Amino acid sequence: MEVAMLNEEEYVRAYELYGQGIRAKEGTRQERFQPLLDFYFGLTGEKETEPNAVMHHRIAQYGPPCENCGKPYRTPQAAFCAACGHKRAEKL
How far is CA 87 from the centre of its chain? Predict the structure, then answer.
């Protein structure tokens, strides 16, 4: 399953909208975070219903694609791929 990820510029705006939803005093949870969900949909065309999930869709949070299976390393510093167990040839 492919997940649309946010670059740093997009993430900064998503973070602002997430903070506004956290600080909002009125409205349902859905109403407070709707601007964030709308922003993500506008960028990606993917309908997300969980604001916390959007905050995990940040490219910089993950490492490069595994040389063996193509899935991203869990972190930029990961020494092996959690999906297939491949040992990373070069850590950055």
Answer: 24
* The CA-based dihedral angle spanning residues 68, 52, 6, 46, taken in that order and rounded to the nearest 10 degrees: 90
Packing angle, helices 29-44 and 8-23, rounded to 10: 170
Angle at CA of residue 24, ends 21 and 29, nearest 5°: 60
pLDDT (tens, 9 = 90+) of the chain, 92 residues, equals 678 899 999 999 999 999 999 999 999 999 999 999 999 999 999 999 999 999 999 999 999 999 999 999 999 999 999 999 999 876 55
Q: Which two tokens stand for residue 48?
A: 């997300």
In this structure, what DSSP letter does residue 59 have?
A: G
